[in-house]
Amino acid sequence: MNNWFFPALMFAIFVVPVILLFGYAALDVIRRPGMGMGFRALWLIGFCVLPIVGPLVYLVINPPGSREMEARLADDRTHADELMSLASLHDQGKLTDEEFQQAKQQSIYTAGGTMPGSVSQQRGGQLL
Predict the structure, then answer these.
(1) φ, ψ dihedrals at 73, nearest 5°
(2) Helix (H/G/I), strand (E/B), else coil: 62
(3) 3, HSE (Cβ side, Cα atoms, 13 Å)
(4) Do residues 98 and 90 touch, judged by C-beta distance below 8 A?
(5) What does the pLDDT profile of the chain (128 residues) look like in tens digits?
(6) CA distances from residue 57 to 2, 46, 60, 118 in whole angstroms, order as listed
């Protein structure tokens, strides 16, 4: 065999997965909504200091598919805020009972249903 085969094999087995893990976690930190610049910087510095453990810890804490869950939860908060404002208007007497029920049903109908129940569905079908 050639002198390059075993070093290339070791590179493919050990170095390439570490680079992919680092890149995937760094890209997720950069693209994750709702994370402040300070936390992003700390995670990226942690990845540089601990290039294997840092991305693994990050991906365990923030599993794949949790961005979709954050978006759903944020969407649910806006619907909850809308329902709270409708209830406030109803309590102030600015909406009749019929108008309140109609607006509430319309708000619930436009919310798109309920959140999926199983953990697999909540994580977008991806498992750890």
Answers:
(1) -65, -40
(2) coil
(3) 0
(4) no
(5) 568 888 889 889 999 999 999 999 999 898 887 788 999 999 999 999 998 999 999 989 887 766 666 666 666 666 677 778 888 888 888 878 888 888 877 776 665 544 445 554 545 555 44
(6) 38, 10, 5, 24
What is residue 86's DSSP assignment? H
Q: In the chain, which ranges are continuous DSSP H helix?
A: 5-10, 16-31, 37-49, 53-61, 66-91, 97-110, 119-122
pTM, whole model, 2 decimals?
Answer: 0.49
Residue type, 126: Q
